[in-house]
Every structure is written in structure tokens, then in C-alpha cells.
């Protein structure tokens, strides 16, 4: 069998249904959205082909030229690169040979133009031959198909394997990819995915056997096993006989012999319908983007399979929400596959993998999130109010909230060191209008009363910024508060955290418990099923601990690497001291400890489960039948009263003092109930029932020291506090191990630790971990003393919203940070590809923006008076006039570009004619 020459996808673009941009298409895949509206043929943009010729083409043909041009630009090929063009078409309606010729002219009129292939897989075969024979340096494959049918959307449309799926929707699509040999591309290009193998089986009378054979050949060519594949894009034709044959053939090929759901299934048809000739290349683009951005895509509206018995020994599952694609233990790259059943009776299987060397992965997902932060700053109340009013006027003239937020941020950067800062948050124009109206009143109240202004949406202002008065501390919450779905979107929002050394330290362990955090199933899990799985997570203290340590590391990396929030002080609540050591980079390796934790009886039998440490301390049989002999409860009661109530109870402890009036008691269940009845206070059972911070743990002291004694690195100029002695600690391997062991074996008085830290002028507390309990306890302890406690995770609130709201508070409190990752680059440029030359860039004249900036600046110094409204009206008129001028100037420049390009083409023809003579 011949060795397969790997190819790299270095450029791609597609337009499907109503998705006119690649970013919008990819976002819809990640968010599990569906769109079946017809694809607009308008707005094809400028192309380096004379207008007269372009106008002779059908709108659909013009569209595929635009898509091909975008894919070529993404590829960023050298101007001298020799390119072949292959069109994929099932009919002659779109004149594939003519389109291939036009596409080749987008790059270089001397490049060979190849005609049509019936499928993307036969086109890939041809591309590989052209590249390996060195006939060309790169290949562009393009496909287009439009339905003439009316787009009728059923109530439920999803993967055709679904039990409720009974119709196939036909969609529109145009797509293109640019390929090079992997060896050629790997050092110089962005690689979306590597094509490791392609197999095709033809002329087989047995569909099931042919599909299995195609899979097995592809596995052999790629030198992998079925268990290595984490995502499989299926054909899912919607034809019952074909669907049944496809899944039977795939299950036979992918069986691993273990009851392990190792491979996710999906199909782009669930998102956009069947785009026929374009469906193969769009499936390829979708799968490449999932590899590039490292996530398992959701299948919208999935409920469960039609024939459960068929899937009983299947390794497949279906994700109803997109999730991070964690590497399996021992794997070094993510691998996906695409299965295809072609209309000509051939069966194809394609293996793709991520480019392991691809460190930087461009993503606009964060900056395009529709939750905008408008930052305004000034030294005086009046000028700040003027800026809010100016924002209100600019809102009426702005084409988009994203652009307005970016322009506002640019102006804020000039004044970010002012005395006062307000952060206004909104998702749409209606919300922003309301928030601005509230802000005018809220700022005045904040100045008059000294109380911070905060809206339910998250807008925030303080007239008493703590960042100018004190220092920042990262606070690491305790364990046993993790939950299903935690951090689901963090890696998509903040992909750079994959490269953080601290994240690499904990990544493998978090990946190992991924299936508890993001459960896998072939059917959509019910609420009750999810509750059962979550209880299993809660009952697994090691998995809870590892997930929370990992999450704390992720959040710390995001704050530091993205928003440049750095703190020289940190402390933790209970096992939060462990999270602190890892997230702050003090411990350089957690793997050995994690391996030991998983094998140690400490959290399996001593402190959890049968709780043998307690049984030994109390002289109870280790194999006793009474499993409910121990309980933990939260009491809302002053500490002094609780201490008095347990004086005569030998088996009741106060392991945790959260606030002066919130206490946790633990011990013998009946004795705890007697204390609660005696105090007659509000009491709540805790969600966890482990043993911690009490005398029966003393027998486990040496084991705790061993687990927490790890190699360290010094973090200069940093202070880390411990509850062992309620003082800053010495960064020494053995000291850290003993401190953590001591603090876990003794009562934790969190208010005492808070007050000690506050004594060192810590005024800003950022809770870096799961939940917001520590923030609540800090505020309940410090009460009216100057401080701000901010959490960045709350169950039921998505990660992006939580983080942006936290940033709004920190910004207003003058904490040093960088908000730029939230905003797109303020560069409005039009790129036109021209071969053998640098790409010319047309930038609109920014004089309009400069004039607006000057007007805003001058207005910000005025006090509200009778002249102010008139000035604002004048400013609005000027804004509209300059906007019209800007658009007119850009249109003129575009026409000039076309004229110049036409003249160049005419000159080339004259020169070629003279050469022929």
C-alpha cells in the first residue's frame, strides 16, 4: 500500500445560507445554531477581474469567486506560488470549467486551471497527485450549490440519525480550501488541519462492508487506531437505508472492545441542511475549524438515536453542547475523521489532525461576543456626566455597538488614569439606552452617598476607587463546589491559556476527569440524569479537587495573560491553598501528586466514604453498617453561641468559621442535631459530607504532608498567606507541605485570615476559582470597611458574562488592567489580492474620527448649561455629514481601483498580442 503524502489546509472560506462570513459560520457551529435561510448573492465585493466580465457572470458564480479569493488570501501564499484550481460540481449548471478559469485569474493567469470533479474526495485525490508530482505548489478546491426549492424548515431538524428526524433540508453553500503538502507548509503557514489519509472504495455491492473497509484503509494509511479519533463527521444523508448502512459500517470499524464513549458524532447538515455538491467541502471546513479551535461541536436539537439496539456496543456519543476537546491520556494531537457516501456509489473516509506545531491560533470569538463594555473616565463629576451624554448621542449615529464600544475604548485609553471610571455594559441598543439613562442618575447618587452604583446587567461605578488606596489579592476558594459544565466556554474564549505553563501543569489531570464534567451520552441527558451524574462527581473528592485546581489555574491564567491583572498577594480558603500553589506557579509539577492522590486512601476511605479516620479516632469498627454516622451543617449563628453550645458534645466540631455569623459544624449526626435544636437557628446540610479541619484528621497529618510536598520555584516579590499560622509563609518545599497539612487538620477561622490580610493594606479581593462564597464571606467580615470583593464564576451565569462583569468592577476601582482583548482592531481596511505585488490597502481617511474625538474632548470639559444641547445637536449633524463623506470617498476609491485594474489587464493583453506578432 502506498504511503499517503500528507496535505495541509492553509486557507479556507465558505458562505452557507445566511452566513456571509467565515467567522459567523464557525460561531454558529460552536454555538449549535441552525440557519436555513437562502444565501444572498449580493455584496460579492471587489475582485481583481474587470467589472464588465464580472457582470456577465451569474450572481452565484460571482459568489464562488469571492469565496475562492478569500480562501487564497487566508493562505497567504508567496506571489510566485503556482496554483491549480479544481471545481467540485454535480452538474454543468454553474459552468465549472469557466469558474475554474476565473478562479485561477484571482491569483495568476498563468496558473493551470483544471475542470470539475464530482466530489471533494476525488478532488483531494487529484490535488495530492498534482502536489506530489510537483506540477503545482498549491491547489485550490472550490464548490458551490444552490437550491431551487423553497426552504421549508420542519419543527425539528437535526442529525438524521435522531429519533425525531423525518426530513432532510436542502441548503445553499459555496466553499473553497487551499492545500499544500504538509512538508512544504508546516514552517511558513497557518495550518487549519492536516489531511493524514484518504481512502476510497468503489463498485461494492455491500454498503456496510465497503464503509468498514474504507475506514480501516484510512486508519492504516494514517497509522492510527479507531480509538485515537475524537470526532467523526458523518454523511447523515437522511435516506433511511443509507443511514442504517453508514452507522453499521462505522460501528464495526470503530469498535474498541471497551464500554468507552471515545468518539463524538456530528454533521454540518444539522446546522445548514444538505448543500449537495458543496456539502463535502463544507464538512471538511467545519471539521478543520473544530480541530484548529480545539472543540467538539454541538449537534443542535439532538434527542436520541432511532434504533438504540444498533448502537449498544458503539464508541460514539453526541454532544448537545460544544465543549473543549481535551486530549486523551497519552495522545499528542487531536484527530478527526469524515465519512462520505458519494452519489457515484463510492465510499470515502478521510483522516485529519491538528497541526501540533500550530501554537498561535487566531480567533475573533472573544472580541465578537455581543456583550459590550463601554469605558468612560474623567477627573470630575461634570465631565464624566458629559461623556455619558455624548455616548447617548453617539449611540444614535453608530452603525453597530461593537464599533461604538471600540471607539469609546480608544478614547478611554487617553484618559484611563483619571480620577473616576464608569463601566457601562449592554448586549444591544435597547439595553445600552436604558443603562445610559440609569448611569446619569447612578453617578450622581454614587457621588452624593458614597455608595457604588451597580445594575442587574453589570454596569458599575464607584466614586471611591480602592485601587488608588490598597493592593490586590487573588483569593482561592476551597474544594468540593465544582459542577457539571463548569468552564465549558473558557478555552474557546481564551485559547491562549492552552500555552500557559501553569495550565500545562494541571491540564492532563483535568482532561482525565473531563467525562464527569462534560458527560458523554448517545441520548440527550435529562435533568434527573444530570443530577445523578453530578452527585457522582460530588461523591468523588479527588475528581472534585482536581477539577477545581484546574479551574483556578485557568482563571488565573486568563486574568494574567489576557487582561494583565497581576497580584503580588494571594491566600486560599481550606484546600484553596493547594489551588493557590499550582495556579500561582509555585509548584512546578502536579502530576505525581495527582497520581498519588488517585491511589491514596486519604480521600477514598479515610476522609470520605466510610471515613475510617473518624472511626479510628472514635473507636468504631471500620466495617460498620452505619454510613450516616457523620454529617456537616451550616449554621447561621454567632460563633460565640455555637462554641458555647458544643462545650459538652465530645463528637461535634467547628471545622469552619466562614464569617462571624456563619459557622460549619460537623460530627456525629445525632449530636449535631442536638446542637442545632439547642441553638434554634437556621441550619442547612452541606452538599458534601467529607471530613476536614477537625481533630479526627490528625492521624492523616503525615499523609497530607507527603501529598503537598512538591518541587517549587520562587516567585519574587510575592506574598502568600496560610491559615496554618495566619501569616505570610516561607516558600520552602517542606514548609509548604507542613503548613497545608496543619491548616487542614485544624479549625479554619476565615475571618481571622481575612483580617490579617486586610492589615497589610489589601483592599481588592479577586476570587479566582469556582463560585462566589469567598467574596461573600469577605464582605460579610469586613462590612463597612473600605474594600471590594469580586468573583468571576457563578453557576448559572456564562463564563464571558461573569468575567466582563468582574472587569467592570475592577476597572471602576482603578485596578491596573488591559481591556483591549475585548475589542476588535480599529482598522477598517479593504484588501484586494493582486499577484506578484504586495496587496494594496485602502484605508478610509480617519479625519472624521479625529474631528469627532476633538469634539468629544472639548464637550467633556463643559458643564451642562443652555448651550450644551445645541452643541450636541451640531455634533450629531457634523457626525452624519462626515460619515456620508467617508462612505462617498471610499466608493470613489473603490471605483478608481477597478479602473486601474482594468487598465492593467488591458495593457497585459496588448503586450501579449505584440509578443504573438
From TrEMBL:
<dbReference type="InterPro" id="IPR014181">
    <property type="entry name" value="Omega3_polyunsat_FA_synth-like"/>
</dbReference>
<dbReference type="InterPro" id="IPR016039">
    <property type="entry name" value="Thiolase-like"/>
</dbReference>
<dbReference type="InterPro" id="IPR001227">
    <property type="entry name" value="Ac_transferase_dom_sf"/>
</dbReference>
<dbReference type="InterPro" id="IPR020841">
    <property type="entry name" value="PKS_Beta-ketoAc_synthase_dom"/>
</dbReference>
<dbReference type="InterPro" id="IPR052568">
    <property type="entry name" value="PKS-FAS_Synthase"/>
</dbReference>
<feature type="domain" description="Ketosynthase family 3 (KS3)">
    <location>
        <begin position="1"/>
        <end position="354"/>
    </location>
</feature>
<protein>
    <submittedName>
        <fullName>PfaB family protein</fullName>
    </submittedName>
</protein>
<dbReference type="Pfam" id="PF02801">
    <property type="entry name" value="Ketoacyl-synt_C"/>
</dbReference>
<dbReference type="GO" id="GO:0016746">
    <property type="term" value="F:acyltransferase activity"/>
</dbReference>
<dbReference type="InterPro" id="IPR014031">
    <property type="entry name" value="Ketoacyl_synth_C"/>
</dbReference>
<dbReference type="InterPro" id="IPR016035">
    <property type="entry name" value="Acyl_Trfase/lysoPLipase"/>
</dbReference>
Amino acid at each position: 500500500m502506498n504511503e499517503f503524502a500528507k496535505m495541509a489546509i492553509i486557507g479556507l472560506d465558505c458562505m452557507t445560507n445566511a452566513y456571509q462570513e467565515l467567522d459567523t459560520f464557525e460561531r454558529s457551529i460552536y454555538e449549535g445554531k441552525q440557519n436555513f435561510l437562502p444565501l444572498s448573492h449580493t455584496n460579492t465585493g471587489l475582485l481583481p477581474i474587470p467589472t464588465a466580465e464580472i457582470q456577465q457572470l451569474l450572481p452565484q458564480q460571482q459568489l464562488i469567486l469571492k469565496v475562492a479569493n478569500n480562501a487564497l488570501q487566508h493562505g497567504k501564499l508567496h506571489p510566485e506560488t503556482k496554483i491549480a484550481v479544481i471545481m467540485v460540481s454535480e452538474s454543468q449548471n454553474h459552468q465549472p470549467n469557466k469558474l475554474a478559469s476565473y478562479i485561477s485569474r484571482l491569483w495568476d493567469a498563468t496558473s493551470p486551471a483544471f475542470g470539475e470533479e464530482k466530489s471533494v474526495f476525488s478532488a483531494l485525490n487529484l490535488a495530492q497527485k498534482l502536489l506530489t508530482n510537483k506540477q503545482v505548489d498549491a491547489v485550490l478546491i472550490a464548490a458551490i450549490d444552490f437550491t431551487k426549492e423553497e426552504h421549508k424548515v420542519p419543527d425539528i431538524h437535526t442529525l438524521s440519525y435522531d429519533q425525531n428526524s423525518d426530513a432532510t433540508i436542502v441548503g445553499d453553500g459555496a466553499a473553497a480550501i487551499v492545500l499544500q503538502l504538509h512538508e512544504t507548509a508546516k514552517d511558513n503557514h497557518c495550518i487549519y488541519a492536516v489531511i493524514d489519509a484518504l481512502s476510497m472504495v468503489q463498485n461494492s455491492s455491500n454498503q456496510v462492508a465497503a464503509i468498514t473497509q474504507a475506514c480501516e484503509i484510512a486508519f492504516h494509511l494514517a497509522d492510527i487506531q479507531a480509538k485515537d479519533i475524537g470526532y467523526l463527521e458523518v454523511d447523515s444523508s437522511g435516506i433511511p437505508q443509507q443511514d442504517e448502512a453508514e452507522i453499521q459500517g462505522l460501528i464495526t470499524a470503530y469498535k474498541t472492545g471497551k464500554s468507552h464513549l471515545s468518539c463524538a458524532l456530528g454533521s454540518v447538515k444539522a446546522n445548514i441542511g444538505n448543500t449537495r455538491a458543496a456539502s463535502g467541502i463544507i464538512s471538511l471546513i467545519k471539521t478543520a475549524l473544530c480541530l484548529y479551535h480545539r472543540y467538539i461541536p454541538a449537534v443542535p436539537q439532538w434527542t436520541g438515536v432511532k434504533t438504540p439496539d444498533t448502537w449498544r456496543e458503539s464508541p460514539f456519543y453526541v454532544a448537545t453542547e460544544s465543549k473543549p476537546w481535551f486530549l486523551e491520556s497519552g495522545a499528542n494531537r487531536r484527530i478527526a475523521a469524515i465519512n462520505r457516501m458519494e452519489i457515484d456509489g463510492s465510499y470515502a473516509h478521510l483522516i485529519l489532525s491538528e497541526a501540533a506545531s500550530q501554537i498561535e491560533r487566531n480567533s475573533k470569538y472573544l472580541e465578537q461576543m455581543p456583550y459590550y463594555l463601554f469605558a468612560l473616565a474623567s477627573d470630575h463629576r461634570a465631565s464624566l456626566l458629559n461623556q455619558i451624554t455624548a455616548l447617548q448621542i453617539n449611540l444614535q449615529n453608530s452603525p453597530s455597538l461593537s464599533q461604538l464600544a471600540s471607539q469609546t475604548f480608544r478614547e478611554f485609553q487617553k484618559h484611563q488614569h483619571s480620577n473616576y471610571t464608569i463601566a457601562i455594559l449592554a448586549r444591544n441598543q435597547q439595553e445600552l439606552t436604558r443603562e445610559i439613562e440609569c448611569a446619569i442618575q447612578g453617578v450622581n447618587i454614587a457621588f452624593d452617598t458614597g455608595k457604588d452604583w451597580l445594575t442587574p446587567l453589570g454596569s458599575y461605578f464607584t466614586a471611591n476607587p480602592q485601587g488608588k488606596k490598597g493592593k490586590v489579592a487573588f483569593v482561592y476558594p476551597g474544594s468540593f463546589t465544582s459542577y457539571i459544565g463548569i468552564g465549558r466556554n473558557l478555552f474557546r474564549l481564551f485559547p491562549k491559556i492552552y500555552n500557559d505553563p501553569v495550565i500545562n501543569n494541571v491540564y492532563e489531570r483535568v482532561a482525565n476527569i473531563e467525562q464527569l464534567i462534560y458527560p458523554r451520552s448517545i441520548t440527550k441527558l435529562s435533568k434527573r440524569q444530570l443530577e445523578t451524574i453530578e452527585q457522582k462527581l460530588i461523591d468523588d473528592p479527588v475528581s472534585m479537587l482536581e477539577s477545581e485546581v484546574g479551574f483556578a489555574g485557568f482563571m488565573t491564567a486568563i486574568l494574567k495573560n489576557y487582561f494583565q491583572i497581576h497580584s503580588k498577594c494571594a491566600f486560599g480558603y481550606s484546600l484553596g491553598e493547594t489551588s493557590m500553589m499550582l495556579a500561582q506557579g509555585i509548584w512546578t509539577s502536579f502530576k505525581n501528586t495527582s497520581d498519588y492522590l488517585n491511589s491514596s486512601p486519604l480521600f477514598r476511605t479515610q476522609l470520605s466514604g466510610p471515613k475510617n479516620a473518624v472511626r479510628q479516632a472514635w473507636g468504631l469498627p471500620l466495617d460498620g453498617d452505619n454510613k450516616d454516622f457523620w454529617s456537616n451543617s451550616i449554621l447561621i449563628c454567632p460563633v460565640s453561641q455555637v462554641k458555647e453550645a458544643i462545650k459538652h458534645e465530645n463528637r461535634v466540631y467547628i471545622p469552619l468559621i466562614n464569617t462571624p455569623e456563619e459557622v460549619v459544624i460537623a460530627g456525629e449526626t445525632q449530636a449535631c442535631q442536638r446542637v442545632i435544636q439547642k441553638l434554634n437557628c437556621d441550619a442547612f446540610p452541606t452538599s458534601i459530607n467529607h471530613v476536614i479541619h477537625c481533630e479526627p484528621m490528625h492521624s492523616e497529618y503525615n499523609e497530607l504532608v507527603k501529598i503537598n510536598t512538591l518541587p517549587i520555584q520562587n516567585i519574587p516579590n510575592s506574598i502568600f498567606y496560610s491559615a496554618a499560622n495566619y501569616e505570610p509563609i516561607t516558600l520552602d518545599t517542606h514548609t509548604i507541605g507542613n503548613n497545608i497539612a496543619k491548616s487542614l487538620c485544624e479549625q479554619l477561622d476565615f475571618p481571622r485570615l481575612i483580617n490579617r490580610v486586610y492589615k497589610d493594606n489589601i483592599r481588592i479581593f479577586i476570587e479566582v476559582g469556582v463560585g462566589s462564597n469567598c467574596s461573600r464571606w469577605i464582605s460579610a467580615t469586613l462590612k463597612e470597611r473600605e474594600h471590594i470583593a469580586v468573583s468571576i464564576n457563578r453557576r448559572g451565569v456564562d463564563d464571558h458574562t461573569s468575567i466582563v462583569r468582574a472587569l467592570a468592577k475592577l476597572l471602576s476601582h482603578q485596578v491596573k488592567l488591559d481591556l483591549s482583548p475585548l475589542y476588535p482592531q480599529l482598522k477598517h481596511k479593504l484588501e484586494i489580492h493582486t499577484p506578484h505585488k504586495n496587496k494594496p490597502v485602502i484605508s478610509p481617511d480617519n479625519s472624521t474620527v479625529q474631528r469627532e474625538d476633538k469634539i468629544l474632548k472639548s464637550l467633556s470639559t463643559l458643564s451642562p448649561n443652555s448651550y450644551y444641547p445645541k452643541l450636541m445637536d451640531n455634533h450629531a449633524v457634523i457626525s452624519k455629514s462626515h460619515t456620508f463623506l467617508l462612505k462617498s470617498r471610499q466608493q470613489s476609491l473603490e471605483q478608481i481601483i477597478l479602473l486601474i485594474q482594468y487598465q492593467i489587464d488591458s495593457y497585459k493583453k496588448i503586450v501579449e498580442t505584440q509578443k504573438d506578432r
